[in-house]
Amino acid sequence: MEINSNLLAGRRILVTGGSGFLGYHLAQRLPKLGVSFLAFNDIEPFPKGEYPEGSLLEIVDVRNASAMDKLIRDNKINTIIHTAAALPLWKKEDIFSTNVDGLRTTLNAALKNNVDKFVFISSTAVYGVPEKHPLVEDDPLEGVGNYGTSKIMGEQVCREFIEKGLNVTIIRPKTFIGTARLGVFQILYDWVDSGKKIPIIGKGLNRYQLLEVTDLTDAISLSIACDPKLSNDVFNVGAGKFKIVKEDVGALCDFAGNGSRPMPTPAKLVKPALAFFELIGVSPLYKWVYGTADKDSFVSTEKIEKKLGWKSRFSNQDALITSHKWYLEHKEELIRRGTGITHRVGWDQGILKFFKKWL
């Protein structure tokens, strides 16, 4: 897989939600591909020292129409990578206002200012919890929770703008991890690092595909650098190599080498308990996490491989171990940073801390 850097050299790219996990990785990857100008916007502060010299860092909300229009117009943006999203732990009204209204605002500004390429980062949460696998791009959509529903609505908005003449790539990535990814995975890394048994919902015999974040940044870059006629479409992206959950989590435990190991649990008991804990606000695990954890969940990437020439380089186990290594190297700093509700900070474990003591 080769990405033609010559086709990216003249790009003036805006990354919305740029202070997040994916924004951070795009900041590392795109300059290496020759992108001439990079701008990032978000409602959160930008971590110091993590963005290339000369990058524009703006605190601008994607829901602010006039501010988005000015940001795109004044900086002659010709390409937008829309990663801005309110995550599942956010309030319902913020999820829909950001993930649907904020997307529409950004698309309107892109069309008004003659942006010639728009990449929308959707999610495989749009498929719900189907029985049929692998999932392909024209399978039925049925979102889980507010987040999944908002992503379906976002894709519908994108199609409205495709009909208006805007070139839009919709990317549906599997759960992506890598260096600097925390959130719900920080809980896993903490338990593994502590040598605990790792509860797996169900027997762990299901296949649950992940995605290493650098594979995702390559898919995004290819969609910008390729023939526009090929990329005006929707694509699944996920790891090419993944095993059953028990084996993938087991490989992470083996890497830790401290006695941690996967522990199957009865899904019929655990899932209702987690739903109750979520309802009363004492658990960070939301429905998409526990609702799909004991099910097969993997997509076909044949379409993006054939049309754009993309190919994954990293397996589930590669992604988990790489991410865990970074966690170990930054553990003390992360403790000082505290908890939050984005993918770049750890989440408060809530009642899970109680169960951790006994495993």
Q: What's the structural blueprint in terms of helices and strands?
A:
Elements: E1 12-16, H1 21-29, E2 37-42, E3 56-59, H2 65-74, E4 79-82, H3 92-112, E5 117-121, H4 145-163, E6 168-173, E7 176-177, H5 184-193, E8 197-201, E9 211-212, H6 213-225, H7 228-231, E10 234-237, H8 245-256, E11 261-265, H9 267-279, H10 287-292, H11 302-308, H12 316-329, H13 331-337, H14 352-356
Parallel strand pairs: 1-2, 1-4, 2-3, 4-5, 5-6, 6-10, 7-9, 8-11
Helix pairs in contact: 1-6, 2-3, 3-4, 8-12
How would you characterize this protein structure?
The protein is α/β, with parallel strands linked by helices and 359 residues long. Helices cover 42% and strands 13% of the residues. It has helices at 21-29, 65-74, 92-112, 145-163, 184-193, 213-225, 228-231, 245-256, 267-279, 287-292, 302-308, 316-329, 331-337, 352-356; strands at residues 12-16, 37-42, 56-59, 79-82, 117-121, 168-173, 176-177, 197-201, 211-212, 234-237, 261-265. Helix 3 (92-112) links the parallel strand 4 (79-82) and strand 5. Helix 1 (21-29) packs across helix 6 (213-225) and helix 3 (92-112) runs parallel beside helix 4. The longest helix has 21 residues, at 92-112.
Short key terms for the protein model shown above:
359 residues, alpha/beta, Rossmann fold, UDP-galactose 4-epimerase, domain 1, 2 domains, seven-stranded parallel sheet, two-stranded parallel ribbon, 14 helices, 11 strands, globular
Quick synopsis:
This protein is α/β, with parallel strands linked by helices. It has helices spanning 21-29, 65-74, 92-112, 145-163, 184-193, 213-225, 228-231, 245-256, 267-279, 287-292, 302-308, 316-329, 331-337, 352-356; strands at residues 12-16, 37-42, 56-59, 79-82, 117-121, 168-173, 176-177, 197-201, 211-212, 234-237, 261-265.
